[in-house]
Amino acid sequence: MRNIKQLIIIGNGGHSRVVQSIIKQTDSYQLLEIWDDSYEEETNEAGIIYKPIPKKNVASVDLIRYFIAIGDNLIRSKIANQLQLSTADYATIIHPRAIVDEQATVKTGSLIMANAVVQTNSIIGHHSIVNTCAVVEHDTMIDDFVHVAPNVTLTGNCHLSKHVFIGAGSVLIPNISIGEHTIIGAGSVVIRSVPSNVTSYGNPARVV
Fold it and tell me: pTM of the prediction?
């Protein structure tokens, strides 16, 4: 009989509620605690513990995994730095209706939502989000703490650097690179690479 790992979710907003729904649809994890700064410590009728996010390092515990269920890239990054857990302590959560090719890699702390597709030789970094119905085509590299919003299409061999946000419905043509901390506005069509620390949107997308 295999051991079901217990899961601690950090955050309890809308994004967290989606993660909690996915957990209920799988048998990979048993929800143990939810940490959010809006709580004082309490236990609900299902035995789930609610408490504030710790302000210092958290010790690793065998058979317990953690997941930062917050949509904002910078907040996820800040909390990961605050907790100082190893990457092995984090869960990887993949919706049962997502398609992830066996030659793709999804690193720990990341989330693949319903009807998303991650194609062959693509790599999803730690603590990144591939949201509902997004498509990550072959040989695409997504670094840590990236958010790919719903219905985005990343065509082949794209590269998204750390803390990038790609707005809903955007399309990147093949071989596009997006620099760190850059935001691509919703509905954009990106036909050339975009540098770091800018906002770009439109069809074709232009730096603002």
Answer: 0.94
